């Protein structure tokens, strides 16, 4: 299908697990203490964009990611897995920090051609269900377009890698609900990969605040001087 679910703590042994726990606390404090202008408030959630939003031409202004988004996730965890080895820049250069409070979600959508077709999502806070939808065709009914074809349960401290057909052939979204229901081996496609399946054997999970770190590689990157020079010619 083109997805892989991994738990970050699996890469740590002994005292290093304490380091990972400390990192989560540190990252959470960095997110919550960000100045208000750093947050973009949308109808259904709020987000931060690092190092910056893309331009109108889907170009990223070259700038490094902040260190708290790089270590120890990108270096060494992503590097060990060779996640972005085949990406044009060999590493993620763009991160979205999405916050979902209970009842919030995002409509089915696709990330599009601005990015290398691979997304690595780190989940913090509470679990949440990611719904995958077949892209609508002329034969798709309204009922079919509203019903997910696959569902992925993203647990805290999990790393979800989506690529290949999952990236190109499906829309993805998060339902606006206070409670994820119909959880089980027959409805959650990564059930066998869950770290705590017994937690969800009741068939539901109450939503709490969940934060995701979405790592991607933007294909078009320009230095600030080059961008300003281009704009001055328009």
UniProtKB/TrEMBL annotation:
GO terms for MF: dioxygenase activity; metal ion binding
Alphabetic keyword roster: Dioxygenase, Iron, Metal-binding, Nucleus, Oxidoreductase
Gene Ontology cellular component annotations, sorted alphabetically: nucleus
Major subcellular location class: nucleus
Key word Iron present: yes
Alphabetized Pfam families for the sequence: 2OG-FeII_Oxy_2 (PF13532)
InterPro entries: AlkB-like (IPR027450), ALKBH6 (IPR032862), Oxoglu/Fe-dep_dioxygenase_dom (IPR005123)
Subcellular location: Nucleus
Top-level taxon of origin: Eukaryota
Keyword check for Iron: yes
Signal sequence segment: none
Residue ranges of every copy of the Fe2OG dioxygenase domain listed in the record: 91-219
SUPFAM superfamilies recorded: Clavaminate synthase-like (SSF51197)
Family: Belongs to the alkB family.
Protein known as: Fe2OG dioxygenase domain-containing protein
Organism name: Aspergillus homomorphus (strain CBS 101889)
């Amino acid at each position: 299908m083109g997805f892989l679910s991994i738990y970050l703590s699996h890469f740590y042994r002994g005292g290093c697990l304490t380091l990972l726990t400390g990192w989560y606390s540190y990252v959470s404090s960095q997110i919550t203490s960000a100045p208000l202008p750093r947050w973009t408030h949308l109808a259904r959630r709020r987000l931060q964009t690092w190092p910056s939003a893309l331009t109108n031409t889907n170009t990223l202004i070259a700038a490094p990611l902040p260190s708290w988004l790089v270590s120890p996730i990108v270096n060494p965890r992503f590097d060990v897995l060779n996640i972005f080895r085949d990406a044009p820049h060999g590493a993620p250069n763009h991160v979205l920090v999405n916050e979902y409070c209970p009842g919030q979600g995002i409509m089915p959508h696709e990330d599009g051609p601005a990015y290398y077709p691979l997304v690595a999502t780190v989940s913090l806070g509470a679990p949440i269900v990611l719904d995958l939808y077949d892209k609508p065709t002329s034969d798709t009914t309204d009922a079919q377009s509203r019903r997910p074809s696959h569902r992925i349960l993203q647990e805290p401290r999990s790393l979800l890698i989506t690529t290949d057909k999952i990236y190109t052939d499906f829309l993805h979204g998060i339902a606006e609900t206070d409670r994820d229901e119909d959880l089980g081996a027959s409805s959650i496609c990564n059930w066998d990969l869950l770290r705590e399946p017994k937690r969800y054997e009741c068939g539901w999970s109450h939503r709490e605040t969940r934060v995701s770190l979405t790592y991607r590689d933007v294909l078009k990157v320009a230095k600030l001087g080059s961008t300003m020079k281009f704009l001055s010619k328009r």
